[in-house]
Amino acid sequence: MRVLIADDEQLARARLTRLLGAMEGIELVGEATDGQQVLARLKQGGIDVVLLDIQMPKLTGAEAMALWPADGPFVIFCTAHAEHAVEAFESGAVDYLLKPIEPARLQKALERAKQRESQAKFGAAVKQTQLTRLAITTRQGVVLLDPAAITHASLEDELVTVFTREAQHLTDFTLQELHERLPTFERVHRRALLNMNAVARLEPLETGGYTARTHGGQAVEISRQAARELRKRLGLRKADDE
Description:
Blueprint: E1 2-6, H1 10-21, E2 27-32, H2 35-42, E3 49-52, H3 61-66, E4 74-79, H4 85-90, E5 95-98, H5 103-129, E6 134-138, E7 141-145, E8 150-156, E9 159-164, E10 168-171, H6 175-181, E11 186-189, E12 192-194, E13 199-204, E14 210-214, E15 219-222, H7 224-234
Parallel strand pairs: 1-2, 1-3, 3-4, 4-5
Antiparallel strand pairs: 6-7, 8-9, 8-12, 9-10, 11-12, 13-14, 14-15
């Protein structure tokens, strides 16, 4: 994790430098003494987290945050003034540390930033995997399907079929590969993938699962285990054996 220290007090910068130097996986990429220097350094890139003081000359930390780039690094405010905490969190800061900063508290704040970074990367990866069209090769050529038009996919006799409301298409994709390409779909059975936006109603089964009925009248079995997770997310009452 690459960290920039921004504080107009030399002693404060020295303390943070010492604390960061004792932590594994942390790279100190520079120092700044006012908000203008911080913003100039951000343009160069290569920063994951800024340890940002609030009270600085020329441009305060809070004023700098108002000019923060949309894809800028995460911010951990480091200040001697507790009264700015609400303002800091409203600006999107990861954490708010009061001076003198303790090692354990700084470590916790950096871990929180690391979690935010992981979540951001996951969200970007999901966006990349979400397709505008799913390409399926058939004897007549390549069919390009809008994922929103797909109701479900099922595995029968080692062959996977992708269903829309009007048609069905055999594919060489496995269900796992389809799930990776259609991350918003639910794996409702070891043999079925389901677009919940296509479901009109859920019909209970004696096994504890459901039969999902799509708006086009198609039936898709939801296993007992998948039904249990689905009930939790939908806020439905639990079955007696759960």
